[in-house]
């Protein structure tokens, strides 16, 4: 542990304080964090809508700009991973477990429980449910990740800077980023990563528990003992993977994730309402692009009911993706060496977005079709909806087994990737953080999940994570400005040499 920086100790202390608060006074913790989140959502919803739209435009600009030909690395560097493995890594770290958790549940909610503007259960609510789900999980989300990943990869692999968030701001602030200001920036990133993955471990454990309870009569649902066993097994597996390194453990897990995900997706398309799925995907894709600008700036300032929906869904998601961006962005940057900026942005923005759209069209359409057939899924918990859908289509048990395996492998990959990222960020951006540091963070993440599952503080910690998005969003804006400044200087120098 000699190589750890002060960021390690400060961030770990803050995480432990937040967890202690959530475990010892869960009601008060939930009230305080809920009030802060409510204030930020209500007062700064306009800000989130604007900055995320700016991030999308920022990425699209560099996608088509001549500067997109510049490589994330030296001109002679080659990509470390094949394109397929790289996409699998992006997808697994960026959204994986969330797609399984929300794939059927979110479109169903927008259709039958809480539509954006339509009447629940109507054809318009069906169309709206898919359009807004595409919106929340589409290009905007991946642009948020790209805004963190792109500057990191550029400064780390082309300019030789440490793989730290603070290092990307040196063109603006110079050596001041080597002092307390830089430590503050990196502590915010580490806190968001540690808390984000811990909450995901908790929610992933709940879904695995519900799936096992669905498959096996002897296993109780929502049972703390079962959840403890799940976390223990998963922790052992992801620590073994973390110990084996990036090019083995995470690489193989990510490829396994994609095989399982594609298998489950294809089976649902075949066994579910195939024609409905294909038609809804086609129509929703067109509706998404037709309404993209309108949805991006929809604030409903004089419509209280619609405003509440936007706060609860769109603003929540933009804050959620921002809060996850330190972890996902750092990981994406680490595995993207050797690709040009244009290749990077095409891969990060377009491929995972398309996969997500197909996924939601398949699972969402199937869930709504089951609901319309007379089976009420709206009374199920979010973690139960997927298994409720599988119960109504052929080979439901087989699909449930694959889904549990997929949640587990996504679960392991997220935790494994997070220990790697946390290790990097607390050892001065090392590309190969010490196993002892990764082990410490791995045990810390699992312990946090166990404590909060026991005390009932998981939702409040998730709220605390979303609050962290607000200060980090300003860091992201500075990263964009810093990246543009440095890249523009280099591009002008390249043009002068020609």
What does this structure look like?
The chain is built from 19 helices and no strands. It is mainly α and 498 residues long. It has a single domain, classed as Amino acid/polyamine transporter I, CATH 1.20.1740. Helix 1 (6-24) packs across helix 2, helix 11 packs antiparallel against helix 17 and helix 14 packs across helix 17.
- Please tell me the total number of domains: 1
Give the end-to-end Cα distance, rounded to a whole number of Å.
48 Å
Strand content: under 5%
The CATH topology is given as Amino acid/polyamine transporter I
Q: Which second-level CATH architecture applies? A: Up-down Bundle
Question: Count the helices. How many?
Answer: 19
The major sheet is characterized as: none
- What is the succession of H and E elements? HHHHHHHHHHHHHHHHHHH
């Amino acid at each position: 542990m000699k190589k750890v920086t002060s960021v390690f100790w400060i961030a770990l202390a803050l995480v432990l304080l937040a967890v202690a608060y959530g475990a010892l006074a869960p009601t008060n913790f939930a009230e305080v964090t809920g009030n802060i989140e409510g204030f930020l959502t209500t007062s700064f919803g306009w800000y989130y809508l604007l900055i995320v739209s700016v991030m999308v435009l920022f990425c699209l600009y560099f996608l088509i700009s001549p500067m997109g030909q510049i490589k994330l690395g030296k001109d002679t560097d080659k990509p470390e991973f094949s394109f397929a493995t790289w996409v699998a890594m992006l997808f697994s770290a960026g959204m994986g477990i969330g797609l399984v958790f929300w794939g059927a549940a979110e479109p169903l909610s927008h259709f039958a429980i809480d539509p954006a503007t339509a009447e629940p259960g109507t054809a318009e609510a069906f169309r709206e449910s898919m359009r807004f789900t595409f919106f929340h999980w589409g290009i905007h989300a991946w642009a948020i990740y790209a805004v963190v990943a792109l500057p990191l990869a550029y400064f780390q692999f082309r300019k030789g800077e440490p793989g730290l968030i603070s290092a990307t701001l040196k063109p603006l602030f110079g050596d001041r980023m080597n002092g307390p200001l830089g430590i503050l920036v990196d502590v915010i990133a580490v806190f968001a990563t540690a808390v984000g993955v811990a909450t995901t471990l908790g929610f992933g454990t709940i879904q695995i528990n519900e799936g096992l309870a669905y498959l096996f009569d002897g296993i109780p649902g929502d049972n703390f003992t079962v959840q403890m066993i799940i976390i223990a097994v998963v922790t052992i597996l992801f620590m073994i993977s973390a110990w084996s390194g990036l090019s083995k453990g995470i690489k193989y897990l990510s490829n396994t994730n994609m095989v399982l995900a594609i298998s489950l997706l294809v089976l649902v398309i075949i066994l579910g309402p195939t024609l409905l799925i294909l038609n809804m995907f086609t129509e929703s894709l067109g509706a998404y692009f037709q309404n993209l600008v309108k949805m991006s700036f929809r604030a409903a300032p004089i419509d209280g009911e619609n405003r509440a929906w936007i706060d609860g869904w769109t603003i929540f998601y933009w804050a959620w993706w921002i809060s996850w961006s330190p972890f996902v962005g750092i990981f994406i940057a680490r595995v993207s060496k050797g690709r040009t900026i244009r290749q990077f942005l095409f891969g990060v923005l377009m491929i995972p977005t398309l996969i997500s759209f197909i996924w939601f069209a398949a699972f969402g359409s199937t869930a709504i079709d089951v609901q319309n057939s007379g089976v009420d899924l709206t009374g199920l918990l979010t973690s139960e909806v997927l298994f409720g859908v599988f119960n109504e289509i052929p080979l439901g048990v087989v699909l449930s087994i694959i889904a549990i395996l997929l949640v587990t492998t996504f679960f392991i990959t997220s935790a494994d990737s997070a220990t790697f990222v946390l290790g990097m960020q607390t050892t001065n951006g090392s590309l190969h953080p010490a196993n002892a540091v990764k082990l410490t963070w791995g045990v810390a993440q699992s312990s946090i999940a166990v404590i909060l599952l026991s005390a009932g503080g998981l939702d409040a910690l998730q709220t605390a994570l979303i609050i962290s998005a607000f200060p980090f969003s300003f860091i992201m804006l500075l990263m964009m400005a810093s990246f543009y400044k440095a890249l523009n200087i280099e591009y002008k120098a390249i043009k002068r040499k020609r």
